[in-house]
Structure formats: C-alpha cells, structure tokens
Amino acid sequence: MNFDDSPEEAAYRLKVRAWIAANKPDLSVLGPEDRVWTEPHKDLATRWQVIKAASGYACIGWPTAWGGSGGTAIEEAIFNQEEQTAGLRFSYFVTGLHMLLPAVLKFNDDDASRALVPPAVRGDTIWCQLFSEPAGGSDSAGLRTRAVEDGDDWIVTGQKVWNSGAQIADYGMVVTRTDPTVPKHKGLTAFWLRMDTPGVEVRPIKMMSGDAELNEVFLSDVRISDSQRVGAVGDGWAVIIFTLMNERAALGSGSGLSWRELIAMARNTPAGEGSAMDDPAFREWLADYYVDAEAIRLQTFRNLSALSKGEAPGPEGSAGKLLWANGAQDLSSRAVDLQDRFGLIDDPELAVANGAFHHRLLWAPGLRLGGGTDEIMKNIIAERVLGLPGEPRVDKTVPFKDIPSGR
Ligand SMILES: Cc1cc2nc3c(=O)[nH]c(=O)nc-3n(C[C@H](O)[C@H](O)[C@H](O)COP(=O)(O)OP(=O)(O)OC[C@H]3O[C@@H](n4cnc5c(N)ncnc54)[C@H](O)[C@@H]3O)c2cc1C
Fold it and tell me: Rounded to an integer, what distance in angstroms lies between the CA atom of residue 358 and that of residue 55?
C-alpha cells in the first residue's frame, strides 16, 4: 500500500489547505478559559461549520442525496487532517453528522428523516447520543428505558447517563426496550427525538477536568411519534452497533494533543544543562510513543481504504480507539511530569501551554471509557478481529424479563 497522496489527492490537499487558510475563523478570540463546551468555543465552532457548509466542505463524503458533497472518504479525511493541522479541532457536530444521522439514514428512507440532515450540516442543530444507562454502559443491550406503544406514538420512560452534549443538543437518539419477553439484544428499538419534548430533563454532571460535557437525561412519559422510529421495532441492537462502529472509527483516528506539541514543550523545558529533550529516558519513551502514534495513523489509512470501497467501519476501529485513548493519557501524564512542580499549576493564565496538558490529563481517563472501555475494546479485538473464543454470555438466550436485575 502506498501511504503518500496520489497526484489527485495532493492537488486536493493543496486546494483545501489554501481554502482553510483563507476562510478559517480567528482562533485568537478564544481566551485560555474558553475551552470546549463553553459558549464562545461553541459559537466559534458553529461559525466554522456555517462557513464550511456554504462551500460544500461540511459533509464531504456524504452522497449529495443526503445533503453532502458526494466526495470520497479520502477527500474527507484529507480535509479533516488539514483542519486539525490548522488548529480547528471542534467536536460538536461529530455525534450528529458522523454517528447518529448516518444511522437514521441507513435504517430509514423517508422524507422526515432526510429533512433532519440539512440543518445539521449547516450547524443549526446539535445531536446527542442517549444510549448508556446507570445499569447498562458496556452492556448496552441490557438497557432498561422502556417504550410502550400508544396508538401512533410510544411512551418512553427511564434514565440515561454520560450523554455528551445533551445540555446543548437540539436532537437525540434514544434506544429503548420495547419487548422484555425476548432475549436482551432482540427487544430494543431506537427513536430520534427533539430534546425539548415534554418529559425530557437534562441534568449536567461536573467533570474533574472542570468541563461540562456529560449529563444525566431523565425521560418521564415522553411521547414520541412512531414516525421517529429508527429502523424496525426490535432492530435497536443493529442501530447501536452501526453507531458505535462509526464512533470508534472516528475516535480511533486520533485527535487532540500530539507528540508534536509535546516535543515543542520539551524543547522549552529546562532540564540539567539543556532541555527535557536531552533526557535519554524521555527520548526512549518518546520513540515508543511515536511508534504507537504511527500505528494509529496507518490503521486510519486501512479504515479509509475500506470506506472508499463502500464498506462500513468494522471492529478493527476498536484497536485504534484503544491505542489512542491510552496514548492520550500517557502523553499528558509525561508532559505534566516533565514540568516537575510546575505541572501542578492548572490555571490556564499561568500554566505551560495554557494548561492544555494538565487539562488533557484530567480528561484522559474519560477517553478510555467513552465509546467503549479498554476491556470492551480488547474483547472486540479478541473475538471479532483475532477470532478467539468468545467470553461466556449466560444471559444471551434468556428473555430479558427473566434476567436477575438485583431489584
Ligand atoms: C467522556 C465520556 C463520554 C461519553 N459519552 C456518551 C454519550 O454521548 N452517550 C452515551 O450513551 N454514553 C456515553 N458515555 C458512556 C460510556 O459509553 C460508558 O461509560 C461506557 O460504555 C462504560 O459503561 P459504564 O460506565 O456503565 O461502565 P460498566 O459497563 O459498568 O463497566 C465498569 C467496568 O467493568 C468493565 N467491564 C464491563 N463489562 C466487561 C466485560 N464484559 N469484560 C471485561 N470488563 C468489563 C469495564 O471495562 C469497566 O472497567 C460516555 C462516557 C464517557 C466517559
């Protein structure tokens, strides 16, 4: 496989690099405190989304029938790389455009579903994923939020948790249990809903990094029209799997602080007679880290060539997600260690690199959980990539209502 750009791809890269340079919003308007999920940060991200949409760069790889630009997955990846290099790292629209709306459109082929797309592409709407529950995170087939049919509607009752961006989302996708008499994977059904539907209550969770990304979402007799069902009744597990494969492929493509930022910091960090870059132990660690980062980059190319052949992201995305999340924790931990006692300073006004490494260190444990924990990624790699025997699943064929719940 040739990892260099083809002549066409190189020309496309130059074109989008020039376009991004000419159109990118001024990032200096953001102060050190204006991190992700703050209003100024979200406003800037929205402005950038509007600019991209107006020039056909918001959803490059989507078919034009879906409101995209009909480009290739490779073109979209090139644009994303150039965006990252230009410091434009925004995630508000990823859940909608790269995880949930592709699922809505895969499972539903109707006007109401297609009408959800243009506002999301333009940055007018933000989506959130309402899957995890207090008793069902890794075991998402074990979820307990129930939906009961009532004429042309469903009445949904239950609690979701750890829902990224639910506090600012306009829409959500919720997976519910519609039939407790069949085994757990078979009785699930997915719906999309507006987050201002009566009975939906969002309660933010404060994170140790200080960020306000996560939420609990309580659903009390929420009435959802059957026309908002995603896929057939009982197809919810397929919707979950499709969405999570997209999520892991997106996460595993590796975003956030990289070895480049770490090297820049190490060069400016005094140590002994020189800088931290002269420390042999640090250099040895850095070489190992670089090898993992390259593995992620090359794995992304493999995913891309599968996508360009029209294949959906597969279980191998879990390997990228596992490496990336652990690498992010390792990198930020090293960076804070290198700063010695100054690593304790988390005030963005005073800290090295505006506290970016410190902030990442407090965020990183969440990266190893969100989108599936390390252990679940390892199970997937073992069973679905390497073909090793599956772990025992004693409740797989038992009707859900007969699985002991401890209640
Ligand atoms: C930053 C962040 C963002 C998130 N965003 C969202 C979101 O937008 N929407 C959403 O619905 N959810 C979201 N989540 C929830 C996330 O998907 C769950 O936290 C995750 O799936 C783990 O579930 P849990 O927290 O219930 O832990 P549990 O499933 O209770 O796991 C507890 C521990 O047991 C281990 N474990 C569980 N099962 C097995 C097994 N079979 N084999 C080996 N070990 C096992 C786990 O690895 C973990 O260490 C987010 C979480 C985080 C941290």
Answer: 36
Tell me the average pLDDT across 175-179: 98
> How crowded is the C-beta side of 33, counted as CA atoms within 13 Å?
3
Residue of 130, 184, 373 to mutate, ligand 1, most atoms within 8 A of C-beta: 373
Q: What is the pLDDT of residues 311-322, one digit of tens each?
A: 777 788 888 889
For the segment 281-298, what is each residue's pLDDT rounded down to a tens digit?
A: 999 999 999 998 888 888
Catalytic residue list contains 261: no
347 lines ligand 1 (CB under 6 A): no
Domain with CATH 1.20.140.10 in the chain: 253-385
91 CB near ligand 1 (under 6 Å): no
Nearest-angstrom CA–CA distance, 295 and 320: 8
Q: Is pTM beyond 0.90 here? A: yes
> Is 127's pLDDT higher than 60?
yes
Rounded to the nearest angstrom, the distance between the alpha carbon of 103 and the centre of ligand 1 is 21
Task: Give me 300's structure tokens.
Answer: 């992304």
Total residue count of the chain as it appears in this document: 407
| Domain 253-385 superfamily per CATH | Butyryl-CoA Dehydrogenase, subunit A, domain 3 (1.20.140.10)
Q: Is the CB of 96 under 6 A from ligand 1?
A: no
Q: 75, 247, 383, 391: which is the annotated catalytic residue?
A: 247
Tell me: pLDDT of 2 over 70: no
Residue 252 scores a pLDDT above 70: no
Q: Please report, as a single letter, which amino acid is at residue 190.
A: A
